[in-house]
Amino acid sequence: MKQVKFIHLTDTHMNAPHTEGPFVKHRFADKVKQVFAHVQQSGLAPSFVLITGDLSHEGNAEDYAYIRTVLDECSALVGAPVYVVLGNHDHRSAFRQGYLGETPSEEAYYYSVTIDGLRLIGLNSQTPGKHSGELDEAQLAWLDEQLSTTAPLGTIVGIHHPLLHVGGMSPDHLLANMEAIGQRLRQSDVVGIMAGHVHSHNVGRYQGVLSVAASGTAFAGEIVDKDHFRMYHFCSYNIVSVHPDGVSVQTVILPDSNAEIARFQMSLMAAQH
Ligand SMILES: [Fe+2]
Ligand SMILES: [Fe+2]
Known about the structure:
Elements (H helix, E strand, L loop, with lengths): L3 E6 L18 H14 L6 E5 L8 H18 L3 E4 L6 H7 L12 E5 L2 E5 L14 H11 L7 E4 L19 H9 L3 E6 L6 E5 L2 E5 L5 E5 L4 E6 L1 E9 L2 E9 L5 E6 L8
Parallel strand pairs: 1-2, 2-3, 5-6, 6-7, 7-9
Antiparallel strand pairs: 1-12, 4-5, 8-9, 10-11, 11-14, 12-13
Helix pairs in contact: 1-2, 2-3
The site of one fe (ii) ion has 9 residues, from loops.
C-alpha cells in the first residue's frame, strides 16, 4: 500500500467580510486562501484537507455560508475534498444551516470516511456554551463502534481539543474526558491524532499514540510572561504523510507580518481563542 498525504490546518477563525466581530477586519479567510494556493503551487496533490475547528469565530449562518464558498473554491483549486470539525468558537446550529445547508440543529457533527485506504474520523469535542471540550456518551459509543473495525492504512482522528499535555492551558480550556478517549484510541488502529485549539505547534505521544496540535492558520499565540498571553499574525499548515510503517508531519510556515493582534491576561485567555 502506498503512502497517503493530507494537509492539516486549524483554527482559521473566519468570518464573512461584511459581518461584525473582533476578527472580521483581519480577513482571516485570505490566509486560508493563501495556504491552499501554496499547496497547489507546491504540487503536493493531497488526498484530502483537514481543518480541525474554530473554523469560524463565533459565526452565524451567514458566516458559515461564506466559509463554505471559500472552502469549496479552495477544494477545487487543490483537487481534494475538505473535511472539517467544530471548535469551541464554532456553533453547531449555524454551521448546519450555513455550511451544510441543513435544517439548523444542535446535533453534534462527527463522521468517518476512508480515503485511499486511510480512515479519517472527525470528532465533535466542541461543547455548546463552553471553551473546554468533551465527547458525550453517544459519541463515545459511536467511536467504539467505528474502532471495532480497521482500515488498510490505519486511522487519523481529527478533533479540536488536543489529546496532549500542553503547558500553560487552564483546565477550563481542555478536553474533559481526555483519558477515556485516549484509552479507546490506544487500543485501535489510530496512527495519529490531529488537533488545534492551542495556536502553537505541539507534537508528542498520548497513551502511545502520535498526537499533534498544530498552530493556527489565522494566528498564533504565546505566553509573554507569567500573567500575559499574546496573539500575533502567523500562518502555517502541516503536511501529514501516512505510510504503512510510520507517519511524518512537516510544518510549512508562510510569510506573515507577525504583528501583535492582542495581549491579555492569562485569566481571560479562554474567551480569546
Ligand atoms: Fe479553540
Ligand atoms: Fe482557536
